[in-house]
Design goal:
The protein is an alpha+beta fold. The protein has five helices and three strands. Strands 1-3-2 form a three-stranded antiparallel beta sheet. A hairpin with a 2-residue loop joins strand 2 and strand 3 (about 70-75). The mean pLDDT is about 90.
Length: about 110
């Protein structure tokens, strides 16, 4: 899976904030209204709404209207894309460690 770097920039920028990470965690387990989310933070409804907008722009959550409420749900596919990029970085890192081990083994054999 190739991960679009532009999308990744939005994803990790959104996840750089503690409140936004908490919102993602909450709505991955259960859909919640913006009002319900706002009650869980010591900030204004408008501030929570802005956090949700950042998460939505990054594709980490989706919103749908139900009557007068905006319901927020986590998007697991976006989480998977971020995980895939981190897996690719880990693979690169492990490859470097393996090559260093091989070099050290050869040096010990000399």
């Amino acid at each position: 899976m190739v991960v679009d770097q532009t999308d990744v920039d939005w994803i990790f920028a959104a996840l750089a904030d503690t409140t936004r990470r908490d919102i993602v965690t909450r709505v991955l387990t259960q859909e919640a209204s913006v009002s319900t989310l706002a009650r869980g933070y010591d900030m204004s409804f408008a501030a929570v709404q802005k956090h949700v907008a950042v998460l939505e722009r990054a594709g980490l959550v989706t919103k749908r209207r139900s009557g007068r409420e905006q319901l927020v749900r986590g998007d697991i596919d976006t989480i998977r894309r971020a995980r895939e990029l981190l897996r690719q970085y880990e693979e690169i890192w492990r490859g470097r460690v393996d090559r260093m081990s091989e070099l050290l083994d050869r040096k010990d054999e000399s």
